[in-house]
Amino acid sequence: MTTTTDRPAQIAEDATAPTRLQPHGAVAERSAASIDADPQALRAIMDGRWGWVRDELRATLPAEYCHPIDHLTTDEQRALTSERLVELAKHGGHLTSFATDVGGTADVGASTVHFESLGLADLSLTIKAGVQFGLFAGSIQALGTADHHHKYLPGAMDVSLPGCFAMTESGHGSDVASLGTTATYDAGTGELVVHTPTEKDRKDYIGNAAKDARLAVVFAQLITGGPGEEPENQGVHAILVPLRGEDGKDLPGVTTSDDGRKAGLNGVDNGRIVFDHVRVPRENLLDKYGQVAADGSYSSSLASRNARFFTTLGALVKGRVCIGGGALAATRQAMAIALTYAESRTQFPRAGADGEVTLLDYRTHQRRLLPLLARTIGLGFAQDDLTAELHAVQQTVLEGGTADPEASRALEHHAAGMKAVATWHATAAIQAAREACGGNGYLSENRLPQLKADTDVFTTFEGDNTVLLQLVAKGLLTGYRDSFKGLDTLGRAKKITTTVLDTLAVRTEARALAQRLAEVNPWGEDESVTLLDRTWQLRALAWREARVLDSLVARMRTLARTEKGFEVTNEVQDHMVLAARVHAERLIAESFASAIDAQPHGPERELLSRVMDLHVLSGLEEDRAWFLERGWISPKRSKALVATVNDLCAQLRPQTQTLVAGFGIPREWWGAAITA
């Protein structure tokens, strides 16, 4: 993930930047309401690089797969979802996930977009497909070798071998390194003995575990030693463990149970698994990154236990990318329903005129939905960039090569931040859509309740969002530290000065320099720089990110004088989460701006430019107290932010159906009676 020592510094170091800037293009002098964008052209832009995947799914996915099924019992939902998964596999869209030598078409980006687009369907089907094809089969492909691939993947791909991904434990949620399940090698029999030591070490919340899975990819502490050696814990590894026979009954030593009915996603049979000294052949170890010889000797091409652990988890990062994409697809669906309903529903007489007022004509309704629409569009472009980054890193691996470690680490941080902000946005936007439709939004027939229930858990899928943002923050801190390596005191001061113009004001030795920079800074207080200036918008986000990170480092250095490691980190956890969030916000805006810049001049580019204005400025408006406290904006400019957001909402109000059409959701997929 790009750190604040990269792109923000480049902006700060641009000494040629003018002190007075013009608004971006002709759009600044033209009402967005008058822009005549083509919905199909807009859809092509928003579909992105793998638009053909979306088109194929539009042509093949039955409309009934998108309609609410929450009126069914748990057993009925599960049976229907399992049946639909088998049918979905016949269409072959998931084959893009797999290498050509096992019958796949080997396109990482396409498979990610396929999952994202499935987020428009019933989300139980989406998640069950993700468990079967992404987590279960995907981990065999990523962590296994050719023998594993040819033995297990064909059945996983056509669902004749249903499986599950058994990582999470009751007492070890996001802390994968501390998993309690053990896999101890017995050299006398050539078997791995998989065991659950205590109740907190049982596998829990595992999709497909309660009913369907016959084989599990189990993550456990691998314990082994060569001749004359004491057995040693080699860290977390993945082992294939059979769960059920053809008759559907648990195999000896395996006990599965049902997590029960959930708030949503009841078509997925989440369950618990306990192992009582279950023996499996040594060959069931997915041993791409760590091998156990017949005599128990352990070997790995990776130098350390930590390296093996992070390489293993890095190979599975695609799950986080997919969850964020699926959440965005559900958000698009909710926005389409709420905005379309708001175009037809009227409420209260229009003062001084005949008829009633359409909901979307009310400023409060525009304020409620249009910034969320703009953010949904912006996140879509950021998701496309993340998918392209994932493709670049993992396509080489899918084709038999080795991933670049530095690129893999950057991807892990980027995926963690995007997953957090996208799923939190889904929760907020779908709730707002539900409220905006009043009582109709609470009816199952209008799909919003099921979208709300089914996406709620996305904030904890593939890692709790708060934990993920702390992971991002640690990456930012590492990048900050690395950027100062080899610099003397003066060099450090220069580096910080070019990264964030006024953070040195609190440092005695550089106070004068920082004050001079702040006085000539054209980006904050200069009222001649319009709020619609794209450079000013991006500059504000970059400045905020750099300022937050620099102040976080300063706090940690101060605390480190009197506190120990945990106390220091614990004291600044809220600050770390803020640093990660504003970092993600900057990346989202830059993706949005890049997508716009890639388009030829025309109405679609103009419309998206105004949508980006609303996205960025409504975000700055929410955070304007922070900018005011630090002198980046004046009270006058703070008030101007509110007025500009109001104006943008009014201008984009006539464009809402064009923007909804840009999502490319077939109308028969909406599944909402109020939009029929």
What's the layout of helices and strands?
Blueprint: H1 7-12, H2 39-47, H3 51-60, H4 74-91, H5 108-118, H6 123-143, H7 146-158, E1 163-166, E2 182-186, E3 191-195, E4 203-206, E5 215-224, E6 232-242, E7 254-258, E8 271-275, E9 278-281, E10 291-292, E11 298-299, H8 305-314, H9 318-344, E12 346-349, E13 356-358, H10 363-398, H11 405-436, H12 448-456, H13 465-483, H14 489-499, H15 511-520, H16 534-560, H17 565-571, H18 573-597, H19 603-622, H20 624-629, H21 635-652, H22 656-662
Helix pairs in contact: 2-22, 3-5, 4-6, 5-9, 5-10, 6-7, 6-9, 9-10, 9-11, 9-22, 10-11, 10-18, 10-19, 10-21, 11-12, 11-13, 11-18, 13-18, 16-18, 18-19, 19-21
Outline the structure in words.
By secondary structure, the chain is α+β, with helices and mostly antiparallel strands. 52% of the residues lie in helices and 9% in strands. The protein is built from 22 helices and 13 strands. The chain has helices spanning 7-12, 39-47, 51-60, 74-91, 108-118, 123-143, 146-158, 305-314, 318-344, 363-398, 405-436, 448-456, 465-483, 489-499, 511-520, 534-560, 565-571, 573-597, 603-622, 624-629, 635-652, 656-662, and strands at 163-166, 182-186, 191-195, 203-206, 215-224, 232-242, 254-258, 271-275, 278-281, 291-292, 298-299, 346-349, 356-358. The strands form four sheets. Strands 1, 2, 3, 5, 6 and 9 form a six-stranded mixed beta sheet that branches. Strands 4-8-7 form a three-stranded antiparallel beta sheet, with no helix packed on it. Helix 3 packs across helix 5. The radius of gyration is 26 Å and the shape is globular. The model is unreliable at 1-23, 25-29 and 487-524 (pLDDT under 50).
